[in-house]
């Protein structure tokens, strides 16, 4: 057993919370019920208190009294305006390249197909086995549909997906490299700039899934030269369950990009309702049907808060939270057979920490009963998601100590 006792850890956490410049923001989130510590903000971010007022006003004022006129008064362009806001606040993307629509799954489908069409004659998609299931399944489905070949890579346990791992599978047949910026399970953070350079050296495109990084750490899509990106808004952007996703297309591809779901909302003149599809200019052409305007409302508040707090300060708190969690797990849980799956180098990890123990599924279920809420990830992982603006250092201690208590229970 390490030298840190429960009460020492609690004191350390209290000091860290007191020194945390982002701490006042904790009070801006809805709390209550039986929740003692929410450690899954990377799966579903908490709502902000102001969001309840925004939704009420939307029903009473926008939807309730502007009615169908709302489409002319802002809703029609909301996917683009909100996309620009996400791009500016979280993606390092200049205006005109980001749009909000669909789900991550559907936008990934559109962009993988778009990438193949941008690289005619090339037949290979590089994808890694540590990627989120929907990303892998889509790649399989598109391979079945188009005849493309998947080149699988296995992420390194310690380093994740690296340029060295990619080198053997890149070639003159590579159309696309599809990777997650932060791995959903291990928390590995890619060197997106280096990987983009490596792919470009072979003439391939990069599609970066930023579901687990947008809102949690600095992203510079324009600067890194990333071609395409997709992310979801219900994780670190707190858009609420099922809030729509966003897609980014670098300016240089906008004139040529095509996507396979041709609908009226992505057409050049939606309300002329004419014969024959002509794609809209710009990133609007990624849209298909009527945008989910209601579901776009909550994320507006979180984008304002992220903008106010600043992504660099958010990342600083995030690495402090994950570092604190790893140190505490080392001290309190190593002797119970728990191992850390997430990189110890703060520059190589995202905003969550995954620990492994054979009893993880059972422990997670017991924690949920107590209102302590991490999540379980197969085969044996407990994921501690430490959304920086809504998680305290004390929450980390509450979570880790609850795991200690479960493992110290007599069998
Ligand atoms: C959460 C997540 C998704 C989710 O896709 P949905 O279409 O919203 O269900 C996809 N990819 C990654 C990497 C994720 O973390």
From TrEMBL:
Belongs to the kynureninase family. Catalyzes the cleavage of L-kynurenine (L-Kyn) and L-3-hydroxykynurenine (L-3OHKyn) into anthranilic acid (AA) and 3-hydroxyanthranilic acid (3-OHAA), respectively. GO terms for cellular component: cytoplasm. Homodimer. It comes from the Bacteria. This is Kynureninase. GO terms for molecular function: kynureninase activity; pyridoxal phosphate binding. The keyword Hydrolase applies. Its cofactor is pyridoxal 5'-phosphate. Transmembrane segments: none annotated. It catalyses: 3-hydroxy-L-kynurenine + H2O = 3-hydroxyanthranilate + L-alanine + H(+); L-kynurenine + H2O = anthranilate + L-alanine + H(+). Pfam families: KYNU_C. Keywords: Hydrolase, Pyridine nucleotide biosynthesis, Pyridoxal phosphate. InterPro entries: Kynureninase (IPR010111), PyrdxlP-dep_Trfase (IPR015424), PyrdxlP-dep_Trfase_major (IPR015421), PyrdxlP-dep_Trfase_small (IPR015422). Pathway: Cofactor biosynthesis; NAD(+) biosynthesis; quinolinate from L-kynurenine: step 2/3; Amino-acid degradation; L-kynurenine degradation; L-alanine and anthranilate from L-kynurenine: step 1/1. Its EC number is 3.7.1.3.
């Amino acid at each position: 057993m390490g030298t840190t006792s429960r009460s020492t850890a609690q004191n350390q956490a209290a000091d860290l919370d007191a020194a945390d410049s982002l701490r006042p923001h904790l009070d801006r989130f809805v709390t209550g019920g039986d929740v003692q510590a929410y450690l899954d903000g990377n799966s579903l971010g908490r709502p902000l208190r102001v969001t309840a007022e925004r939704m009420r006003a939307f029903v009473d004022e926008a939807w309730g009294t502007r009615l169908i006129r709302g489409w002319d008064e802002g809703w029609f362009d909301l996917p683009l305006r909100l996309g620009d806001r996400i791009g500016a606040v979280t993606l390092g993307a200049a205006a005109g390249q980001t749009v909000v629509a669909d789900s991550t799954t559907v936008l990934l489908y559109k962009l993988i197909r778009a990438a193949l069409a941008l690289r005619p004659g090339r037949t290979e998609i590089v994808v890694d086995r540590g990627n989120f299931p929907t990303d892998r399944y889509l790649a399989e489905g598109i391979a079945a549909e188009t005849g493309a070949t998947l080149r699988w890579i296995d992420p390194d346990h310690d380093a994740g997906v690296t340029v060295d791992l990619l080198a053997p599978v890149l070639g003159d047949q590579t159309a696309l490299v599809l990777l997650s910026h932060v791995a959903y399970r291990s928390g590995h953070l890619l060197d997106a700039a280096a990987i983009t350079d490596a792919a470009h050296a072979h003439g391939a495109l990069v599609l970066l899934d930023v579901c687990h990084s947008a809102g949690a750490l600095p992203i510079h899509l324009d600067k890194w030269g990333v071609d395409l990106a997709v992310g979801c808004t219900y994780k670190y952007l707190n858009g609420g369950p099922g809030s729509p996703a966003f897609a980014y297309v670098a300016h240089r591809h906008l004139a040529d990009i095509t996507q396979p779901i041709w609908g009226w909302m992505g057409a050049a003149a939606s309300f002329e309702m004419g014969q024959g599809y002509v794609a809209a200019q710009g990133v609007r052409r990624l849209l298909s049907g009527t945008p989910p305007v209601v579901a776009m409302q909550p994320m507006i508040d979180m984008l304002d808060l992220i903008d106010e707090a600043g992504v660099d300060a958010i990342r600083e708190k995030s690495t402090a939270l994950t570092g604190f969690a790893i140190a505490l797990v080392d001290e309190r849980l190593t002797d119970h057979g728990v191992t850390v799956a997430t990189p110890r180098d703060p520059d190589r990890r995202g905003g969550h920490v995954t620990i492994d123990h054979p009893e993880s599924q059972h422990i997670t279920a017991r924690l949920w009963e107590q209102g302590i809420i991490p999540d379980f990830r197969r085969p044996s992982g407990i994921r501690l998601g430490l959304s920086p603006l809504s998680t305290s250092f004390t929450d980390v201690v509450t979570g880790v100590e609850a795991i200690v208590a479960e493992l110290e229970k007599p069998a």
